[in-house]
Design brief:
about 290 residues, mainly alpha, rod-shaped
């Protein structure tokens, strides 16, 4: 029993001494850490990529022209193509406004003249030597009347004259619609071409991010902004093209309606001359046609 107590006391003393030793070692370690100098910084190789902070401080021109100059060659080619498409859109728009305005004004005046005329001969005299579509309609009916002068029946004259007038209207509509196909193409493909430039630019930006080994927004933003500029230019080219195309389509449809009214007026004059048995003579028609040819 005394031996057990002696062993217990010895073990307790040993554990107390071990705890005191650990406490002393921990204190010495803390004091040593406080007086130790900081670890040396490893030298950066000369060819190592710049850090995010260094790249973030680099000056970058974020104006449209600066972003264009900083874009990749593919994105620059897309931007130049879209800019040329925008120029083509406004050129066609100005040309079509002038052409359609003049054509509608002439057709309106010719329709008033045809409504006031009492016969084909009178309409031909009023038309004179003008080169408008209404004048072409009158001359076409006069030519058909001349070619059908020896026909035993006048019933087919109206059908043949209507066929000529219909072809003239179709030709005038095709002539007025020239150039609108380019507007439709630009309006439908412009956004997708700009999107192609954006995808290519963002792909190039991600490649640059992997090389710089950083995802700092100041490093990523300029490249993405340059890529998005291509989409913006695509929309700038496509939106006016769609608007101008729709406006031209409505104006052309209105002009075709005017030509249809003029054709109906010419057919009414022909019908009156047939009922009156007062069709223009062949010599007068030939003289009018030769004067128009000259």
């Amino acid at each position: 029993m005394p031996t057990s107590r002696l062993c217990l006391r010895a073990a307790t003393a040993t554990l107390a001494g071990f705890a005191v030793s650990l406490t002393a070692v921990a204190g010495l370690a803390q004091e040593g850490a406080a007086v130790l100098p900081p670890p040396p910084v490893a030298a950066v190789p000369a060819n190592a990529p710049a850090s995010a902070s260094a790249l973030a401080t680099l000056p970058h021109d974020l104006s449209p022209w600066g972003m264009f100059l900083g874009a990749s060659p593919v994105v620059q080619a897309v931007m130049i193509g879209l800019a040329l498409a925008s120029v083509a859109t406004w050129t066609i728009a100005i040309a079509k406004i002038i052409e359609l305005t003049s054509a509608r004004r002439k057709a309106r005046a010719a329709l008033v003249m045809l409504e006031d005329a009492r016969s084909l001969s009178q309409a031909a005299e009023r038309v004179g030597f003008s080169q408008g579509t209404a004048a072409v309609l009158v001359r076409a009916v006069l030519a058909e009347t001349h070619q059908s002068a020896d026909a035993p029946s006048r019933d087919g004259l109206m059908d043949r004259a209507a066929s000529r007038l219909e072809r003239i209207e179709a030709a005038a509509g095709r002539r007025m619609a020239r150039g609108t196909g380019i507007l439709a193409t630009i309006g439908s493909t412009g956004p997708f071409i700009g999107l192609f430039g954006t995808v290519w630019g963002i792909m190039t930006s991600f490649i640059g991010i992997s090389r710089a080994q950083t995802t700092n927004l100041a490093v990523v933003a300029p490249g993405i902004a340059e890529a998005l500029l291509a989409t913006a230019i695509g929309l700038v080219a496509a939106i006016p093209a769609v608007v101008v195309y729709n406006a031209c389509s409505r104006a052309i449809a209105g002009h075709k309606a005017q030509l249809t009214d003029a054709s109906a007026a010419v057919l009414r004059l022909l019908s009156r001359d047939i009922d009156r048995r007062a069709l223009p003579r062949g010599s007068a028609i030939a003289a009018n046609n030769s004067a128009a040819a000259e």
